[in-house]
Each structure stands twice: as C-alpha cells, then as structure tokens.
Specification:
Strand order of the largest sheet of chain B: 2-1-3-4-5
Number of domains of chain B: 1
Helix content of chain B: 25-40%
Largest interface: A-B, 48 and 39 residues
Structural class of chain B: alpha/beta
CATH architecture of the largest domain in chain A: Alpha-Beta Barrel
CATH topology of chain B: Rossmann fold
Mean pLDDT of chain A: 96
Distance between the termini of chain B: 7 Å
Strand content of chain B: 15-25%
Low-confidence stretches of chain B: none
Shape of chain B: globular
Number of domains of chain A: 3
Low-confidence stretches of chain A: none
CATH class of the largest domain in chain A: Alpha Beta
CATH superfamily of chain B: Cobalamin-binding domain
Structural class of chain A: alpha/beta
Number of helices of chain B: 5
Radius of gyration of chain A: 24 Å
Order of helices and strands of chain B: EHEHEHEHEHEE
Helix content of chain A: 40-55%
Radius of gyration of chain B: 14 Å
Largest sheet of chain B: 5 strands, parallel
Number of helices of chain A: 22
CATH class of chain B: Alpha Beta
Number of strands of chain A: 9
CATH superfamily of the largest domain in chain A: Methylmalonyl-CoA mutase
Strand order of the largest sheet of chain A: 5-4-3-2-1-9-8-7-6
CATH topology of the largest domain in chain A: TIM Barrel
CATH architecture of chain B: 3-Layer(aba) Sandwich
Oligomer: heterodimer
C-alpha cells in the first residue's frame, strides 16, 4: 500500500497559500527584478525560486524515499551509514616510478587515508610499455609507469593487501594489470579469497568520454566479462568494474547525461555477464559505480540519490535480481577536476570542499578530493595533504555525518532527485530503442550529446551566464605556486632500461608457452575454459610485460582509433 | 597566384592523452567562425600530425594537450615541419603548461599558447589577425607532395 506524505486536504490549502505567496513574489520583482534572466544548475536545468510540498505531492514514502539499507536505497546502501563507519578516504595517486608512488601511498596512509587508489601513466593506460616509441615523453607524467610484475611489486611494497583495499584506474588493459596485482599478492603470501579492491575496467565510457582506447567495443566487452566471471568464481571480494560517470562528466556532459549513460553502461555489463551464463545474483553485488561531484551542490546530491534508486529498480525489475545486495549501488566519488581553476588556485580548496560535502550528504562509499594544484599537475605532498584533511574535517568536525541522508524530505532535493531519474530514464529508453550502448556508440550518439553540452556550457561561460570566479568574474591571473610538483625527466630512461633488463632475464621457453596459452584462449569462444585471467596470471609470472599482453590482444581482436568527431 | 581562401586549421591531439574536451570545443568554435577545420582525434604521434598537416595543406596546427608530454611532442612537431620544409605552417598550443615551459615553447617556434580560461572569441580573434592563408609551390616531402595554391 502506498504511503502518501500529505493528505489531499493539506495539499489543497498549501496550493492556495503558495498561490498567494507567488503573487507577492511577482509583485516584489516589479520593484527589484531577479538578478538573472534565468536560474539554472551548472547542467542548465531550470530552477524555480521556491519548492513546496506541492512539488512532491505524489510522493510515496516507502516506494521512493524509504529507509537506508532498504529498497530502493534512495537514502543509502547501508542501514548504519556513517554512524558505523565513515566513507573510505581514497586519494587517487600515481607519479613517476613505482617507488615514487609507493612512497606517496605510505605518505597518505600515514596521514590517515583509509584506502588506496592508483593512477597510471598514459602508456600504462593505453597498454604500452615505457620503451614503446608511442610512449615518448609520457613516462610517469600523469601517473605511475607499470610495465612488469616487478613494477607492481614495488608499487605495493610494505602494504598489507588483505587489510587495505586498492583501487586501480585502468581500463582496456585492466585484465593484465589485475593479473599482475593478483600474481604479486600471491607472491607476497596473500590469498585471492581475501583480496579486496577495484579495477575500473569500464571500457564503454572510454569510447564515450575518457578515450583510453585499445580494442573495438565487442572484444572489449568480452574481456570485461572475463574479469567479472573470474572475480565471481575466484576473487569474491573484488569489485570487477567501477562503472564510471566521472569521465563522462569531465568531458562536459550534464548531470543527467552522466547518470543515464553510466547506468546504461551498467545495464550492458549485466547483460553481457548474463549472456556468459552467470546468474545476476552471483555477480551483481560486486559491481560498483563512480560519480563526479561537480560544483552545483544540490544537483549533485539529487543525481547521486537518484542513481541509487534507479539502479535498485533496474536490477529488480529489468534483471529480476532477488538478493538485495545485487540492487545496491555502492559508489566512489571524486570532486570535479574540471571545476578547478588555474587562476587563484587556492580557491580550489573551497570548490573541492563543497563538492566533497555534496558527496558525503549523498552517502558515498569512498571519496577522492582534488588537490588545489591538481589543475596544473599531479599534486604535491603539501596540496594533497590539504585535500585529505578536507575529508577528515568534513568527517569529524562539522557534524554532517551524525545523521543519515539529512536532506531527505527537502521539497527541493526530493523534486530534483525525481527530475534526475525522470530525465535519465528518457535517455535510457532512447538507448534501448537504438539497440543498446554499443550501437549508440557506433552512431556517435553519447559522444555528440556530451560534445553539445560541453560547447553549450563554454558559450554560457563566455556570455557570463555561468560564473567561474577568477575566470569570468573578478578575473585574475595565474600565480607561480611554490609547491607544484616537478618530475625528473630522467626516470623515462631508467624505466626503459629496467624493463629491458627484465625482458632479457626471463626464461624464454616458459614465457613463450604462457603467451601461447593466452593466445589460444583469446582466439577461442568466450567461456570459462577460455577465460583470459588464469592465462594472464601465468603470463605475467613468466615475465610478460603489460604491452606484450596488450599487443597480443591487439593482434587477435584488432584495434580501435578515435573517430575524431566534434 | 595568391587567392583569398578560408583559413585551413588542423586541431591535433599529440601523445596518449585522452583529454579531448578542449580540442573538440575549440575545433567547433573555429568551424563556427568560418575556418575549415580538420580534427585528428586523440593519440596522434608528431609524425602523424605533421603528415596530416602537409597532406591537408593547412595554414595552422593547433596542438591541444593536458598530460605534460608537450615537452616531447611540441618540439618534435616543429622539428618535423622544418625537416619537411613546411615551417610556414604556424603552430599554436592549448592546455596546461608549467609557467617555465611557456617561454621555452615560444622560443622553439610555437606562435602562441592558450591556457585555461582563454576565451574562444579571443583565440579566434588571435588566429584571424595572425594567421594568413599560405601560398606556396608544390614541394616533395617525405610525407607526399604539398599542394600548390
């Protein structure tokens, strides 16, 4: 039975009072008009001056809001939320060599970080070793360079891999990097059963937005499904995909597009795993999500609250999930890199703080806060500490973690949450009609929707319709920050030398045999017997580098290049 | 004979960097401003960029980068243009550059650098004032024959 929040008679009198208020408001505007021609969110969703019970008049409390830890999970995935345990403070980190990044990991852990998150450099992200001609000038620049199992060992040295969960932002080569992680953990005496962590492994959003591209969509999905299948059977605590809206948003999408395209990517991964023969309740509990917390405070909260409800409904209604854990949208959040300014970079601390607060008020499971200098470069130690302390202050000082989902029942937040779901569902129906996400990507649909939104926003900034302090209002220059990180250009040569030595020292016959088995599995039909993961773990143990595994993929599956539309 | 024609611009993404929001927004703004625009897409080597620039007979290359790998790719593009007698093709850059790199990049021949916060209108105006349609004679290069105006 439905439980409407307000009675018919109460609504009638509110409607009358609202009408009276609105007449007064309009009268007042005749004297002093509104500041702006139009009020809208950063995604350009129009916002009214006032929200009242009328905006949520049809709300059914149990069906749409309910209780934390209970379907449809609008209010949070756990019953206890931050009363029991704060979110995992997980700073995205990676710079230079594996030793440099390991040092950064320890620095963050020593200052109270509670989970690890690894940023790889572009060659690693694209499946190239440091000595590839395509990798010139890139080594260690935007993350850590990982070519070999030895690099992986150095990366996680002296970190207890059964106690700390590690997230790795890696996509087309995710299976290879995960194999290195598992092989290293086993070498160090840890058990696969107990390993917790995440590989991003969300290939679809690469075509849509992030553009670390390697294979065409179909074989990319096959490899993703191999990892889902392997995780389900062998590494049960691992999140095998982090279905990511972050990069879609950074590419310029609206909040609704981020929500819709990401959830549709999730739908696609679930469909693929079911096609492989897995049952939805076997694997869905290990899917996780990743949202961008952008600058528009309430829009973000509405988006994240709506996302949980949407996913729960989709898993239950579309896929027939029975286990509530399959319906839980657990998510990581990162504050919006694209909201930071190179001008007056100290102001970025304030932007990041409000974005982090929005993520916390939305019940995120883990959080990365951007550093004030991240607009220029990988963060310095000084800046990353301020960013981590931002989370700790929000968690322990300001009181917002004492109560679960404190904004529930806000007329505005609930109405905006509904609006997010409604508009995202329009896209989801459209994507269904187009024949799914792969078909839509081939038609350039999500890519162009995002490009249009990005261009529209840029125009709004230039017209002064959207304000960015220091950029188009109170204009300011770029100071010479005293602590911007400088990387040693010499590390490229050093890394090339040691990867080369590593290749020279391996047993050639053992390496050949392992690579042949990997090839046999890739060439065979997708199924458990041909799952690439066991063969990859053997291959990296036998000395295969990241690029050698990825070259084999490229050879068997073909490559994909950016169509370059705008 | 010189004849007036639209400016031809190649917007290019050198290196493995996938941050293409800026490149695509600027490419569209150039097109809307009436320039002829070719966009390479992500993940282009300096060799590919220069080859495309010569084959497409462009007047200017706009390099967009966010990864920090400009220290390799920008000088390489300039060097390859020179080697192919195509250094009358102007090169500009957009993205994030450490402050100390900016004079170095200008010194090697990058005509202008546009940093975060640059307005599309300002970029277009700069291009309109500073880049003129090239005129030239056919030349054989390692990348093919350059078209004659």
């Amino acid at each position: 039975m439905g439980k409407k929040i307000l009675s018919e008679s109460a609504l009638e009198s509110i409607e009358k009072e609202y009408g009276e208020w609105l007449a007064e408001y309009r009268k007042a505007l005749e004297k002093v008009p509104e500041r702006l021609k139009r009020f809208s969110t950063v995604s350009d969703l129009e916002i009214k001056p006032l929200y009242t019970p009328l905006d949520i008049a049809n709300k059914d409390f149990s069906e749409e809001i309910g209780f934390p830890g209970i379907y449809p999970f609008t209010r949070g995935v756990q019953g206890t939320m931050y009363r029991a345990r704060l979110w995992t403070m997980r700073m995205f980190a990676g710079l230079g060599t594996s030793e440099d990044t390991n040092k950064r990991f320890h620095y963050l852990i020593n200052h109270g970080e509670t989970g690890l998150s690894t940023a790889f450099d572009f060659p690693t992200l694209m499946g190239y070793d440091t000595d590839s001609p395509l990798a010139r000038g890139e080594c260690g620049k935007c993350g850590v360079a990982i070519d070999t199992l030895e690099d992986m060992q150095r990366l996680f040295a002296n970190i207890n891999l059964e106690q700390v969960t590690a997230s790795m932002t890696i996509n087309p080569p995710a299976s290879v990097i995960w194999a290195m992680y598992i092989a290293n953990a086993e070498n160090e005496g840890y058990s696969k059963n107990k390993l917790g962590g995440t590989i991003q492994n969300d290939c679809l959003k690469e075509f849509i937005a992030q553009k670390t591209l390697m294979l065409p969509p179909e074989p990319s999905l096959r490899l993703v499904t191999d990892t889902v299948e392997y995780g389900t059977k062998q590494v049960p605590r691992w999140n095998t995909i982090s279905i990511s809206g972050y990069h879609i948003r950074e590419a310029g999408s609206t909040a609704v597009q981020e929500l819709a395209f990401t959830i549709y990517d999730g739908i696609t991964y679930v469909e693929e795993a079911i096609k492989r023969g897995l049952k939805v309740d076997e694997f869905a509990g290990r899917l996780s999500f990743f949202w961008n917390s952008h600058i528009d405070f309430f829009e973000e909260i509405a988006k994240m609250r709506a996302s949980r409800r949407m996913w729960a409904r989709i898993m239950k209604e579309r896929f027939g999930a029975k286990d509530p854990r399959s319906m839980l949208m657990r998510f990581h959040t990162q504050t919006a890199g694209c909201s930071l300014t190179a001008q007056e970079p100290y102001n970025n601390v304030i932007r990041t703080t409000t974005e982090a607060l929005a993520a916390i008020l939305s019940g995120t499971q883990s959080l990365h806060t951007n550093s004030l200098d991240e607009v220029y470069m990988i963060p310095s130690e000084q800046a990353v500490l301020i960013a981590l302390r931002t989370q700790q202050i929000l968690g322990d000082e300001i009181g917002v973690t004492q109560v679960i989902d404190p904004l529930a029942g806000s007329y505005f937040v609930e109405a905006l949450t509904d609006k997010m779901e409604e508009e995202a569902n329009v896209y989801i129906r459209k994507l269904d009609e187009m024949g799914g996400m792969v078909a839509a990507i081939e038609r350039d649909f999500p890519q162009m929707e995002i490009a249009n939104a990005a261009f529209h926003y840029q125009k709004q900034v230039e017209a002064g319709e959207k304000i960015v302090i220091g950029v188009n209002k109170y204009k300011s220059g770029r100071p010479d920050l005293e602590f911007v990180l400088k990387l040693d250009e010499e590390i490229e040569r050093m890394q090339i030398e040691r990867t080369d030595r590593y290749r020279q020292s391996r047993d050639k016959a053992g390496f050949r045999k392992a690579m042949d088995e990997l090839r046999r599995r890739c060439e065979g039909p997708p199924c458990w017997e041909n799952n690439v993961m066991p063969a990859l773990i053997e291959a990296v143990r036998a000395g295969a580098t990241e690029q050698e595994c990825c070259d084999l993929y490229r050879d068997v599956f073909g490559t994909y290049t950016d169509p370059g539309t705008f | 004979m010189e004849r007036a024609r639209k400016l031809r611009i190649l917007v290019a993404k050198p290196g493995l960097d996938g941050h293409d929001r800026g490149a695509r927004v600027v490419a569209r703004a150039f097109r809307d401003a009436g320039f002829e625009v070719i966009y390479t897409g992500c993940h282009q080597t300096p060799e590919q960029i220069v080859s495309t620039a010569i084959q497409e007979d462009v007047d200017m290359i706009g390099l967009s980068i966010l990864s920090g790998a400009h220290t390799y790719s920008f000088p390489k593009v300039i060097e390859l243009l020179r080697e192919n007698d195509a250094d009358d093709i102007s090169v500009i850059g957009g993205g994030i550059f450490p402050l100390e790199d900016i004079p170095k990049l200008k010194e090697i021949g990058i005509k202008e650098l546009f940093e975060p916060g640059a307005k599309l209108g300002d970029i277009i105006e700069w291009v309109g004032h500073n880049i003129k349609p090239r005129t030239g004679v056919a030349q054989r290069t390692q990348f093919g024959v350059r078209a004659m105006d």
